Amino acid sequence: MTYCLGIITSSGLVIAADSRTNAGVDYVSTYQKLFDFTWVNERVLILCTSGNLSITQGVLNLLNKDLRTQAESNLHTLPTMYEIAQYVGSKVRSMQEQNRPWLQKDGIDAQCNLLLGGQIQGEEPELYMVYSQGNFIQATKETPFLQIGETKYGKPILDRTLTFETSIEAAAKCALLSIDSTMKSNISVGPPINLIAYDRDSFETKRRLTLRLGDPYLVKIRKQWEVSLRQAFERMPDVDWQHNPHSKVDIAYTDSLD
Amino acid sequence: MTYCLGIITSSGLVIAADSRTNAGVDYVSTYQKLFDFTWVNERVLILCTSGNLSITQGVLNLLNKDLRTQAESNLHTLPTMYEIAQYVGSKVRSMQEQNRPWLQKDGIDAQCNLLLGGQIQGEEPELYMVYSQGNFIQATKETPFLQIGETKYGKPILDRTLTFETSIEAAAKCALLSIDSTMKSNISVGPPINLIAYDRDSFETKRRLTLRLGDPYLVKIRKQWEVSLRQAFERMPDVDWQHNPHSKVDIAYTDSLD
């Protein structure tokens, strides 16, 4: 499994990913899933991948090949983030076309999803999710985050702390806690965690981090978050069993037998 | 969707369930999913259901019919919780056998899962999950909770606050927060919430509650939990971007192009 998330706020972007891949519980390994295609001072471009590893590595290879051969359309020539999302989608479609019929013969899942975040000179920062089918959606102010992979365990913290006005520092913290919650509940998501925080209009990714297994900062925030959660939990008022006596009858199936 | 959970601790049981059912987003309705089959002073028996509603209602109907007709084997005659789990599993198998071939013709999911918690005089409290296939597992001290339905959003709070030694009051609070987290992140889980807390060896379910939409206690704990979470979040140390400068190279795909 995989968990990657992108956050877009009024002051920039945060992109984070775990690095665990598994094909069954007996084949767990580590693969990088966050890739920085930034061209400093010109454009910031970050990609995260989830799903079938052979498909996503193929997509990255195609993107990279176009850069190296200076193909007319590549990550560094296309003029807008929208067109880059379309272009990444076309690479996904090409990999799917090539491999899917073969994978399907053996019932292997060919699905993949990608996150694409960045900013091009003269444009706003933007964040996209590209689907297996090559189509894509863009994050908006109303829901300023997108997730791929094992998304559910880490969503409550995002739902409760993130808005479009959240600072980049707070969004980065939130991303780490979201990944940590996921790692705690699903062993198929694991370190190293890659994290990038991008300040809008800076056109470089200065703040980036790889947190490995047992990294002291990772250990510290997990411990502190657990203590804080437990304290918050203990401060919650006990259930008021008396406040609605009429509810007692609602769930009895066998009153007549009592 | 549905979310139900059962918690077993050294001092008793907590069982909770939402009440939302949906067949597509355009057919959302309210159905009770927690049922109390307790026979006061003799045995406490609580069932929760998730999955295909026609199947689970059918199972409940079969269980109830055996009670009303005083069949030899019924929820009030079987001597152990294990045998009751087996018996509930046999009703699941009977409903599956009867309906699954018809549902499968139209690609309709016939899956269902049930939680069964309770205590019989002379026995310990026990908690089971009965699968669609009629087989079942029992909760143990190591992992003192079982969930059915939309389980992921509400799991982090359980993973971080529950142990077998948690008090029943705390476990009940935790169950409500787990359901509230799920409701916040998935609109197909919703109130009324039914909640039962059972003190071991009491052989009655005195503490039970139905929390309806907008219930003041539900509003209060959601608000207070959000405030507490946000405060805990704000107290977390900011990301230390400098602590591992070597990590910078790891995720760059295009250093040569910088």
UniProtKB/TrEMBL annotation, chains A, B:
<dbReference type="InterPro" id="IPR001353">
    <property type="entry name" value="Proteasome_sua/b"/>
</dbReference>
<dbReference type="InterPro" id="IPR029055">
    <property type="entry name" value="Ntn_hydrolases_N"/>
</dbReference>
<keyword id="KW-0378">Hydrolase</keyword>
<keyword id="KW-0647">Proteasome</keyword>
<dbReference type="Pfam" id="PF00227">
    <property type="entry name" value="Proteasome"/>
</dbReference>
<dbReference type="GO" id="GO:0051603">
    <property type="term" value="P:proteolysis involved in protein catabolic process"/>
</dbReference>
<dbReference type="GO" id="GO:0005839">
    <property type="term" value="C:proteasome core complex"/>
</dbReference>
<dbReference type="GO" id="GO:0008233">
    <property type="term" value="F:peptidase activity"/>
</dbReference>
<dbReference type="InterPro" id="IPR016545">
    <property type="entry name" value="UCP009120_prtse"/>
</dbReference>
<protein>
    <submittedName>
        <fullName>Proteasome-type protease</fullName>
    </submittedName>
</protein>
<keyword id="KW-0645">Protease</keyword>
